[in-house]
């Protein structure tokens, strides 16, 4: 069911932990399964290069594997490059995820965006293409559901 890369990142996740005095921190949750992910970024203020990235995930194996891979991809990127790292890119780097687990990969993308948003707010800068993060990745959907 899972690729070797997913199993590897699930069993030996990279970059687990926290960054003290992180430049940006983002936390997102998925109300449907209750899983939560927090990403910490250490960003160079002059070059805007992401020097370090760590994560903590309270979630399923696919969420752990995608966070692990996402932190690996983001490290060494500029902020602009990090904005291009979508959940699709993370899934491709992991050789795919089963369809029922695709939503898990969204946590990593959203958590990175939330951490970048935190950085942008602290430094009073605008990051092109970055929108205010939702606290829950299904926020929009749920609002729709409530109308019925
Ligand atoms: Fe919740 Fe995977 S089942 S993130």
Structural account:
The chain has 6 helices and 3 strands, in the order αβββααααα. It has a 3-stranded antiparallel beta sheet. It has helices at 4-11, 61-74, 79-83, 87-93, 102-123, 139-146, and strands at 24-30, 35-43, 50-58. Residues 142-148 have low confidence and may be disordered. The radius of gyration is 15 Å and the shape is globular. α2 (61-74) crosses α5 (102-123). The protein has one domain: Sufe protein. Chain: A, CATH 3.90.1010. By secondary structure, the protein is of the alpha+beta class. It binds FE2/S2 (inorganic) cluster. FE2/S2 (inorganic) cluster binds next to α2 and α5.
- Number of β-strand runs: 3
Shape: globular
The helix/strand series, from N terminus to C terminus, equals HEEEHHHHH
Unreliable stretches, pLDDT < 50, 5 or more residues?
Answer: 142-148
CATH topology heading: Sufe protein. Chain: A
Small molecules in complex? FE2/S2 (inorganic) cluster
Helical amount among residues, as a percent range?
Answer: 40-55%
* Structure classification: alpha+beta
Strand order of the largest sheet: 1-2-3
Please tell me the total number of domains: 1
- CATH architecture name: Alpha-Beta Complex
Average pLDDT reading = 90
The number of helical elements comes to 6
Q: What is the gyration radius calculated from CA atoms?
A: 15 Å
Biggest beta-sheet profile: 3 strands, antiparallel
Oligomer: single chain
Distance between the termini: 36 Å
Residue share in β-strands: 15-25%
- CATH domain class name: Alpha Beta
């Amino acid at each position: 069911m899972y690729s070797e890369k997913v199993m590897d990142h699930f069993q030996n996740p990279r970059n687990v932990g926290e960054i003290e005095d992180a430049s940006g921190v983002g936390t997102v949750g998925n109300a449907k399964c209750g899983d939560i992910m927090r990403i910490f970024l250490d960003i160079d203020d002059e070059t805007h290069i992401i020097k370090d990235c760590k994560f903590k995930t309270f979630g399923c194996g696919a969420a752990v594997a995608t966070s692990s891979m996402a932190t690996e991809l983001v490290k060494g990127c500029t902020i602009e490059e990090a904005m291009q790292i979508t959940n699709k890119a993370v899934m491709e780097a992991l050789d795919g995820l089963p369809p029922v687990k695709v939503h898990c990969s969204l946590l990593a993308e959203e958590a990175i965006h939330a951490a970048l948003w935190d950085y942008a707010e602290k430094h009073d800068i605008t990051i092109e293409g970055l929108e205010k993060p939702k606290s829950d990745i299904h926020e929009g959907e749920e609002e729709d559901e409530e109308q019925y």
